[in-house]
Write a structure and sequence with these properties.
This protein is 32% helix and 21% strand. With 238 residues, it is an alpha/beta fold. Strand 6 and strand 7 form a beta hairpin. It binds 2'-O-acetyl adenosine-5-diphosphoribose.
């Protein structure tokens, strides 16, 4: 990998592939099914309206896994936090992941465009709250005290991703764009590389394999995120 010029503002988009080596299953690996329920049943506003208890159970289990002590940041998360700390410039991390592994590895100001597993939101007031315990359809909301008013602070199918204005500003001011462990199946994240590239920004993809958006990148680093991200960070810092 030989960059044209030394970057000053790097935007890094991460997807499920960066957390795979921490033991969190990627979306496409699960074949769109969870305990024989389609992901639409557990990750859409309609699904939540139809069966809120099922949806809460899904997120309770995922939250329990994240907090179980078995899931830890891997060398890819750690390399990015080192980059944020040591790079002479700006490093912005935008993640599609709802886990907190970037934060646990020490990264700061992570933009969670698809929400956060450790937060719930009051349907009535829109306030988000950090919650680590199990939630049920009858759990009273700590904010408005009404039962059934808490929903996962997660972007579901058909909903607008969060922080899009901020993300747009980042994509229009960066001079290097890197996507790590994302399949390019979900929009608008799959388009970020094009937004950056239209401005002449150099682009790098790190993935185990080719993706449907690989052709949009200048460089492909093929392999495990842990290995390739560490190498890429070392190269940038030397
Ligand atoms: P996907 O599951 O679609 O893709 C994961 C990508 O990671 C694939 O391209 C794999 O090849 C790659 N991968 C897997 N293991 C890897 C490893 N160890 N090192 C490097 N790459 C690896 O996940 P996302 O692209 O993140 O949205 O999915 C995007 C969105 O789809 C998710 O955020 C979710 C889902 O619908 C919402 O929840 C709103």
């Amino acid at each position: 990998m030989k960059l044209n010029k030394k970057p000053k503002h790097i935007v890094i988009l991460t997807g499920a592939g960066i957390s795979a080596e921490s033991g969190i299953m990627t979306f496409r690996d699960s074949n769109g099914l969870w305990e024989n329920h389609s992901v639409y049943e557990v990750a859409s506003p309609d699904g939540f309206q139809r069966d809120p208890e099922l949806v809460h159970r899904f997120y309770n289990l995922r939250r329990q896994q994240l907090l179980s002590g078995e899931v830890h940041p891997n060398p890819a998360h750690l390399a990015l936090s080192k980059l944020q700390e040591k790079f002479n410039g700006i490093v912005t991390i935008i993640t599609q992941n709802v886990d907190d592994l970037h934060e646990r590895s020490g990264s700061r100001n992570v933009i969670h465009m698809h929400g956060e597993l450790l937060k719930m939101r009051c349907i009535e007031t829109g306030r988000s709250l950090t919650i680590k315990k199990d939630i049920h359809a009858t759990t009273p909301c700590p904010c408005c005290l009404k039962e059934g008013n808490l929903r996962p602070h997660i972007v579901w199918f058909g909903e607008r991703p969060m922080h899009m204005d901020k993300i747009d500003t980042e994509l229009h001011s960066c001079d290097l764009f890197v996507a790590i462990g994302t399949s390019g199946h979900v929009y608008p994240a799959a388009m970020f590389v094009d937004t950056a590239r239209e401005r002449g920004v150099q682009t790098i993809e790190i993935n185990l394999e080719s993706t449907q958006i690989s052709d949009s990148f200048d460089f492909h680093l093929v392999g495990n995120a842990s290995v390739e991200t560490e190498k890429f960070v070392e190269e940038l810092l030397t």
